[in-house]
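Subgroup meeting minutes
Present: P.N., E.W., G.H.
Scribe: E.W.

1. P.N. recapped why we're keeping a running log of single-chain structure predictions: easier to compare across weeks, and new members can see raw inputs and outputs side by side.
2. G.H. added today's entry (275 aa).
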Amino acid sequence: MDAEIASKYETLKSTIEHLGRVIVAFSGGVDSSLVAYVAAEALGDNALAVTSGSKSLKRSDLALAGELAGKWGMRHRIIVTDEILKPQYRANPVNRCFHCKTSLYEALEQIAADEGFDHVLNGTNTDDLGDHRPGLIAARNYAVVSPLVDAGFAKRDVRALAGSLGLENAQKPQAACLSSRFPYGSHITEARLAQVEAAEDALADLGFSQFRVRHHEEVARIELVADELPRALELREAIQERVKATGYRFVAIDLGGFRSGSLNEGLIEAVQLSP
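Output recorded in log:
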């Protein structure tokens, strides 16, 4: 571990130690995993990792969260939040993430009030602050603490420290919620979420490493990392067969490749919060 990462690690531990009893919003991604791991390390039973098992989280990520919590000796709880029941969320407006995170933080705030926790923590890092992330507004509304931001962690720092600590998911590809696969205005249902998940599971089964299946009604637009595009052409018949089997009529491979948040392209106003 280099000196800069070691210093940030000590700052992160100190920040969390001074928060008392905490709940960590834990998705199984590397950012929230690092916060949950350090919280358990610093606070022991005074830290509780909570995962929402709603349908917008891949079942594989839900299983991973439970597996990691067990390996790391963290207190862990799975809840189911109610965002899919909200018309505002199902309509998939440009601030959809606000409605989702509001459901999550409302539930976590209630657990905190009922069980005597002092703060709710999330895995936001400094790279998240300039993107289009309406969920940050929900976090601010519920006074959620972002210890990675407070300790100056960018995404590369998170992965570096997670790797140094031996976290199994240190290099896990980014895994935004399944609702992010739908263009804004294209409505969200549990069935549609399941369809996208099944299509992405098919790509995983074929050995692709990082990808998105963007849902354009009858069309599945597949984004793959550039290095895997030649292999996709070799496997085009298998991809076509397996993805169409999930209910799509057409299957397209995006020559632009994988871009996290590609459906935000063209949005003019981004949510920006200073660290």
